[in-house]
Design a protein that fits this description.
The complex is a heterodimer of chains A (about 300) and B (about 325). By secondary structure, chain A is an alpha/beta fold. Chain A folds into two domains: about 170 residues, Periplasmic binding protein-like II (D-Maltodextrin-Binding Protein, domain 2), CATH 3.40.190.10; about 100 residues, Periplasmic binding protein-like II (D-Maltodextrin-Binding Protein, domain 2). Helix content of chain A is about 50%, strand content about 20%. In chain A, the strands form three sheets. In chain A, strands 2-1-3-12-4-13 form a six-stranded mixed sheet. A five-stranded mixed sheet of chain A has the order 8-7-9-6-10. The relative contact order of chain A is 0.18. Helix content of chain B is about 40%, strand content about 20%. The radius of gyration of chain B is 23 Å and the shape is elongated. In chain B, helix 2 crosses helix 9. By secondary structure, chain B is α/β, with parallel strands linked by helices. Chain B has a seven-stranded mixed sheet with strand order 7-6-8-9-10-12-13. Chain B has a six-stranded parallel sheet with strand order 2-1-3-4-5-11, with helices on both faces. Classes of the chains: A alpha/beta (about 300), B alpha/beta (about 325). The interface between A and B is medium-sized, with 21 and 20 residues.
Amino acid sequence: MTMRKRSCRLFLGLLFFISAYAPWQGLVFGQTDEILLGIEPEHNIFDQVERYRYLAAYLSDQLGIKVNLTIMSRYGEVIKRFKSKRLDGAFLSSYTAAMGIKELNLEPVASPVNFGGESASQGYIFVRKDSGINSVNDMNGRRIVFVDPATMEGYLFPLAYLHVHGVTDINSFFNNRFYFSGSHASAVFAVLDGRADIGSVKDTVFEKLVRNDPSISRELSVIAKSQKAPEFTLCVSNQFHKDLKERLGAVLLQMDKTKEGKKALRQFEALRFIQSDKSNFDQVEKMAQEARSSIHEHGNN
Amino acid sequence: MKALMYFLFRFLLPVFLVCSFPMISLAEYRIGVIMSGDIPYYSAMHEAFVAGLNKSTPAGEKVEIILQRPFPDPISWSNAARKLIAFDVNLIVTYGSSATLAVINEKSRIPIVYAGVYAPDSLSLEGKNITGCGFKVPLSSLLRYLKRLKAINTLTIIFSGVEDDSVRQSTEVQVLAEQHGMPVKKIDIKSRADLVQLNTIKQDDAVFFTGSSLAHLWLKEIMPVIRQKKVPTADIFPDSSEEGVLMTLYQPPRDQGKKAAEMVLQILKGDQSKNIQPEIFRDTELVFNLIEAQEIGITFPIQLVIEATRVIK
């Protein structure tokens, strides 16, 4: 065997070894080319994509890998995509995050703090002031608008609240007059317009609408509030490489310390990110348990 | 003797009283109906009323209904009320507050069931012979949607000074518009000659239709003038004949017609009007006319379109 042939075989062998080793190496040391993060849709999807685009660009720059975004439809899709490994992580609302942690062992990384200094949100049950509704008793036979079955504030909380106040059969209590608005803002407008008598909504969306149009607070009144839970949390798959998870968390938590980070945060409409923990979602799971019987009767289990 | 008297009063008298009154037949009743105006909103209400009544009337029987569709002015409403009283109807059904107030003014003892009255709780319609149902539409919602469509210089409110519902709505809208920082201009339509005021509407304005019967009676003539100026319009009555109103937020009239029929049946079966709880319907439907929007060069943002109960396109 000539020297040249031997070198050639050695080179090919090395190439084979590298190609076989590379994926494993990427998994362990976090040297992937890109990651895909999901986001749950909000009322104005265009504004939302724009906000997340700035964050993705900053993360790409800091991590040295391309951070891609994908909009997901709802909870079912989140589960499906995490299971099919077509998602590395996602910014999830509290209920979706709680269920993802429970069912898929997702790992919470960080939550954004909004301009008001809050990282958590709560559910409101609200009515028109002239509706004559002051308590659960007054709600009997009226129309209620929920947001989406995958929301804590817009579905889980009102069900749990009604359950605690003795309402277990939503169908008969509301004479089957309930529907899902699809977004928190739409639930507010539905009650304002008289298309529903009672609504449930996330406080941050409600307060933002009131800030933009103070006349809303003259017409609506909040009659119940839930406990607070993290509004959005970046959760990653349990198969996500540990090193990259730590780097991702570190970049997010340090964002407010740098000029570029502050700029990206401003565009993302947040003050900073704070660390998130699985225990933050315990109360959401507790609420889910309270509402579970109603959900079963409701047919969304 | 005492025992005999006791037996007579305790047992025979009630039996006699029950037997002496024949079974009530609904066919023996004559009901008078007055619309505040001959407009689609009240016609739809009346259709539902008649359907509701017929549904509960025994087969082969029919309640006689005398329908009055006076021109929307005080003298005509009053004449219609007097006519029904002269007909000696058993009950009068009214649609809209103008007709209702006209019948009340006649001070007859005939029971009244009203429907289609705007915010009846603010009208003091209580009385031993009166009950009914009305509606409430959050007028502020229409202002909000108008504002989200385009910058509005002045809100023109079309109302009729002779119609109580319309006057109250115009006052309410004026207050709300001022809270939203919109200057207001009012056009009072009492006669056809008043339509000339429509020429004062400017391109940067928006137009708000109150539930005036006169305005809706002449909607076919009013809308072309407004459309020519490419001005967005909002109405609290449905645009049933699709004259081109851009957005409508209304309480479906059929619900009130059906409820009025239920109330009438209760009274005919012996219930006292004062014992029948008045009702206010608050459920609404929101309709956007996207064809009209295109005509006048307005683009509805998708966030707005998704709010609609129905979209015309």
